[in-house]
Structure formats: structure tokens, C-alpha cells
Write a structure and sequence with these properties.
7 strands, oxidoreductase, NAD(P)-bd_dom_sf, KR_dom, alpha/beta, oxidoreductase activity, globular
Length: about 260
């Protein structure tokens, strides 16, 4: 097993499930000290349990926080620095999909909720983690965008708008902070089988969501869903020193779907 993260501190939001959990498991195996943030305490505890099985010597700090609340974001950053003294990698990942409706029927409150978590939460994370990394003179950040952030997706106004915003923040901050030894990139996942994607399919047809999923992936050149661990491998690479000259980039991980149309 690689030791790319020996002695390094990695902070992950949305660490209680899905992509955040997959990334946490991967970097823990490679020696990282972890600070995991999520609104779901039970999810965090499950991630910690799984880490203990595969990386029993890993240090793991669990923090319950709402990333849409700036003070709670400031607090999760300060708690991480207080425990470990630094932040070497940051997977700025927490997000929701929101309800699915055409734009004219998309609730204004729903739009604000999705944007507050997916975009404001990413901005707050960047704001406070970048200040710490600038002091250190180093660091790597990976933001979670989406295929929906580089092309349109029907019936998801809030999600698409927020993820396009994440792409803009990534490119902008990457340009600003490269001079301080900090890389900032985004991943753009396609259909990855996470609890969030499962919930989305159940919105379409609660009784036959698995069949809906089979049809959903047919336009994908690979004809399947991605696996969370496949995203975890990419995140680990982008947070590691091996990607030190990749900056302000948006990397699709979608089986080729975003290039097909």
C-alpha cells in the first residue's frame, strides 16, 4: 500500500457517506490523519468504524457540522487545526441534489437550500481552509462539482446552478492561490452509485428505481454506474504530491458521458 499521506492531515466534508467516505477510506489506508465532517453523526461513526477495519492505526477526528452555516465551517477548520496543527489536504465535498422539477415548478426555497449547501458551503470551506494553507505555504484542495456543473441537466435547476458555481470557484481560486504552493481542482462525477444517487432514482420511481437506474446509464459509453471507490482513487491522487502541477482543473469521472454529446 502506498504511503503518500504519511504524516499528512486530510479534512473531508460529507465524510459520513458516499464519495466522502470512499475518499476517507482510501487516504486513511495511505497514512493520512483524518478530520471528517458531516451533519449525520451516525454516518460519521460508520465511516470511522470502516476505517478502523482497513487502517486500524489511523487517527480520525469526527465533527458534526452544517456546511451551509459559515460559523460551523469556521469551527470545523479551527477544530482540525487545533488537533493536528495543519491541513494538508481538503476534500470540499458535502452536497445534496435537491428535488427534481422543471424550472417553472422548482421551489424557490428548494433552490436556496441546494445553493446554500452546494455552493455557499464550498465557498466557506475554501475561505477558511485557504487562509490556513496560505500560512503553511502548501496544500491541496479538491472540490466536488459534477457533470451537471459542466453541462445542463434537466429538472435540477438548483443542483446545476450550484455545481456550475463550484467550477467557477475552483478555477478562480486556483488562479489566485497557485503562487502560494496550493493546488485547487474539482472533480466532476457522473452517475456514481451513492446514497444520493439512489435517492434521486427513487424520486423518479420509488418502486422500480433499480430499473430506472439501468435505463439511466444506457447513454453512458460504459453502460454502468461508477463506484464510490473509483472516485476515491481520483481524489486521493489529486490531494497527493503526485498531482502537484495540476491546478484550476475540472476532472470528469463519468465513463465518458460528458464527452459524448
Amino acid at each position: 500500500m502506498s504511503n503518500r499521506f504519511d504524516g499528512k492531515v486530510v479534512l473531508i466534508t460529507g465524510g459520513g457517506s458516499g464519495l466522502g467516505r470512499a475518499a476517507a477510506l482510501q487516504v486513511a489506508k495511505e497514512g493520512a490523519k483524518l478530520s471528517l465532517v458531516d451533519l449525520n453523526q451516525e454516518g460519521l461513526e460508520e465511516t470511522k468504524r470502516q476505517i478502523a477495519e482497513s487502517a486500524p492505526n489511523a487517527e480520525v477526528l469526527l465533527i458534526t457540522a452544517n456546511v451551509a452555516n459559515e460559523e460551523e465551517v469556521k469551527n470545523y477548520v479551527s477544530q482540525t487545526v487545533e488537533k493536528y496543527g495543519r491541513i494538508d489536504g481538503f476534500f470540499n465535498n458535502a452536497g445534496i441534489e435537491g428535488k427534481q422539477n422543471p424550472t417553472e415548478d422548482y421551489g424557490s426555497d428548494e433552490f436556496q437550500k441546494v445553493v446554500s449547501i452546494n455552493l455557499n458551503g464550498v465557498f466557506y470551506g475554501l475561505k477558511y481552509v485557504l487562509a490556513q494553507m496560505k500560512k503553511q505555504g502548501s496544500g491541496s484542495i479538491v472540490n466536488t462539482a459534477s457533470v451537471g456543473g459542466i453541462r445542463g441537466v434537466g429538472n435540477q435547476s438548483g443542483y446545476a446552478a450550484s455545481k456550475h458555481g463550484v467550477v467557477g470557484l475552483t478555477r478562480n481560486s486556483g488562479i489566485e492561490y497557485g503562487q502560494y504552493g496550493i493546488t485547487i481542482n474539482a472533480i466532476a462525477p457522473g452517475a456514481i452509485m451513492t446514497p444520493m444517487v439512489e435517492a434521486s432514482l427513487k424520486q423518479i420511481d420509488p418502486e422500480n428505481w433499480e430499473e430506472v437506474g439501468k435505463q439511466f446509464v444506457q447513454p453512458n459509453p460504459m453502460k454502468r454506474f461508477g463506484k464510490p471507490e473509483e472516485v476515491g482513487y481520483l481524489v486521493a491522487f489529486l490531494l497527493s504530491d503526485q498531482s502537484s502541477f495540476i491546478n484550476a482543473a475540472v476532472v470528469p469521472i463519468d465513463g465518458g458521458q460528458s464527452y459524448k454529446y
